Amino acid sequence: YTQHHPFKDEYPTHKRSVYQLTKRLTVESYAQTFDGPDPNVCTSQRDQSVTALQALFFVNDQFLHEQSDEIASRFAKVPEQETAAARLFQELLGRRPGADEQTLMVRHLQEVAQRLGASGSDPSAAGRQAWASLTRSLFRLNEFLYID
After folding, report:
1. pLDDT tens track for 70-83
2. Is the pTM higher than 0.70?
3. Could you read off the pLDDT of 31-50 as tens digits, one per residue?
4. How buried is residue 9: exposed, middle or buried, by Cβ count under 10 Å (0-12/13-18/19+)?
5. Model pLDDT, residue 90
């Protein structure tokens, strides 16, 4: 490989690693969006920013949609919505939801399922999509994204 014929192979993975392949000429969009280090420079401290692109990443990223669908498939099967919502919250955020949070989650599930049902979706598919929507909403919380 030379300057005029650079290495262009990709080895996609969703795992974080110190020993992962890093291309110096093209930075991965995820690393660029979330203040990844410049691969051409040794840095002892990383930049920190909060931008609209980061929020949009959590709305549009295919990987996050796939993961929320996977999680939704587990919780959509539980007959008691309040119990399942509390378990989901506990699993993602590491604490039990407060009364207001519990109410908001159940209301979110009902409103999304109702909206999807009104549009002619299959009721079980609408329920699963509602759970996926709730999961994506929890993924976007500061409490999920940042360690205080």
Report:
1. 999 999 888 899 99
2. yes
3. 778 877 777 777 777 778 88
4. exposed
5. 97
